[in-house]
Design goal:
Elements (H helix, E strand, L loop, with lengths): L4 E2 L2 E9 L3 E8 L5 E7 L7 H15 L9 E7 L2 E7 L3 E3 H5 L6 H20 L2 E2 L8 E4 L4 E3 L6 E2 L32 H4 L6 H17 L17 H8 L11 H14 L8
Antiparallel strand pairs: 1-2, 2-3, 3-4, 4-6, 5-6, 7-9, 8-11, 9-10
Helix pairs in contact: 3-5, 3-7, 5-6
Length: about 270
Amino acid sequence: MIGQTVSKFRIVEVIGRGAMGIVFKAQDTVLGRFVALKILAEKLVNDPEMLHRFEREGRAASGLNHPNICTVFESGNWQGRPYLAMELLTGQALDERLAEGPIPAGQLIEIALGVTSALEAAHAIGVLHRDIKPANLFLTTGGQVKVLDFGLAKVRTPAVRLGDDAPTAVMFSTRQGTILGSLAYMAPEQLCCEPLTGRADLYSLGVTLYELATGELPLRGSENLATLPAGFGPILTRLMAREASMRYQTASEAREAFQRCARGLGLGRAGL
């Protein structure tokens, strides 16, 4: 497919392959910029669930404009295969970074602040990610974290009335009794197929941050909190509370907790 043009995007090279399809580096022939072009695998075009997930990713992410969320520029269909044109990122996914060892405290706080800020924006328009994990977080060469893959996103009615200029989102349905997500990072209520709120994403974030800090997934009742940066452990303990009511109630509350932790550690950051 190298050299072919999909819509207005000329394919330059393959930059990734996954279960759902191929990601290419492509150039927008109108604007000149390079993008990441994700095309659904041909073998999946007749799979309703995969088609639904692919379309869900585009619709959920395109309603979000946030510096810590990978931007979706365009979605469409090419020769019967849906595609997404997305922001081209340079760096590495955090599961790849984790292979090099635990992430230092300063960088860990930056990641926590970036992801909670992204979730705050998503939850504000009713979008639940439902699959926060290291593989879906990308660290750019500039040190900025980006939330990827809204393919499992669930859109709920926002808790507060949105202004007329707020981004729009489309409601999606999920078959009752179907578990979607990555088991090791899923909140108890998600495992039990119960109704979800943004607190499920916060649970997944807690597990993710614990793993990034220690190099290991937490085991219930045996978390090694002593190895975490000062003040970080209590935040993760609350994020990973079994009962949703015991967690931070919003991503904003969690972000503010991480901001206080950063100040306590003497870490400088704009906006703290």
